[in-house]
Amino acid sequence: MGGLSVYALICFVAALFGLVIFAGWPLAVVAHEAGHVLAARLAGLRTYRVDIGQGAPRFVRNVRGVHLVVHRDIFEGSHTWVAADHTEGWRWRRTLTCVGGPLTNILICVALVAAAWRFDNIFLTLVLGLVACPHGIVVALELLPFARVPPTDAVQIWRVLTRSDASISQDVNEALAFELRDLFQSGRGEEARARSVHLVTLEPENFMANVAVGEFDFEAGRWASAAVHLRRAVADPEFDELSTESRALLLHHLASALTFGDDPAGFTEALVAAEAALALTPDDLLVLTTCGMARVRAGHVDEGVALLERVWEASHDCVPDSREASARSLAACALWLACLRRDDQEGADRWCAIANGA
Fold first, then answer.
1. Total-model pTM
2. Most exposed residue of 96, 264, 267, 289, measured as fewest CB within 10 angstroms of its CB?
């Protein structure tokens, strides 16, 4: 009978342990991320997003300027996203942010264990001790050098302390880019643009801010402003550190903004930017179209028409609503304008009819 009682007690404790871990883990993770947020704000960093878990979003809310997203798999890795406008103090501020999460769990764990020792009730002591377990497990996992996604706090601290100054500058720019993209994707595009404009006002040569303002203005059709900021971004030394696709995209948007603009002085610059983008992505029909339009606007009508007709033929079997379809439609419009510049009214009427049906 005594053996049965011991066995029942073991089963009860095991079941209680599992229940407490299952129920207490999300709370421990929330406390962990809250520690990151508090530490980041004490260090002067902006916390713009917190992800709890992984997988499909189940709960999305804006909490005091923080985009909180709770995902389906709450037992997977969580992450707090921070950003800054400059690299000054990034190492120690980022390190403090990483330390804030585990430190919060440790303090809660110590408080629970200390409270457990003050009670004579064995059941209450057991429960408090078990509630402290998820916090201890979170700390243990975050201090191990796991190369998971997102990386553990220990890995992040090691990376930020051992990276070169050039890499730190890249990290800050990437963090700012992620912040602006998150603001834009969460329906706060004007806030993202306002923040970028404010940063450009303070630091006119800030690379990522110029990219952000240029891209926002390009999407809004503010060609003159887009050209000013994209021109600064393309001239920045950090532009050369981007991937081939990113450089081609910025050059393409700069060429398009200058081409769609009303300043004749920018047409030659548009042609230079378009040809640079074409050299990076020679098979991109949309870039080829922009290059053809720039040549027409710069006065090289015959060369531009040849490129545009090449786009028209190459996109004959394109999929509707695809990038190639956009290039085909834009090429037809550009060929119509080119015919007008040639005083070819018959050709202009033909391409106008084609463009309306493209």
1. 0.67
2. 264
